[in-house]
Amino acid sequence: xxxxxxxxxxxxxxxxxxxxxxxxxxxxxxxxxxxxxxxxxxxxxxxxxxxxxxxxxxxx
Length: 60
Description:
Blueprint: H1 2-9, H2 33-39, H3 50-58
């Protein structure tokens, strides 16, 4: 996603951060098909201030 924003929309890469949580913070148990479905997700958060982004992450 970062590369798409950079290449297609000219967003300065120094203004973007890519972060992943994958298996470390799952939304549901992977033991069921429903749980695995919930865990296959992509969230894109666009915030004007980085401190707001970190506060959002701390709530989980």
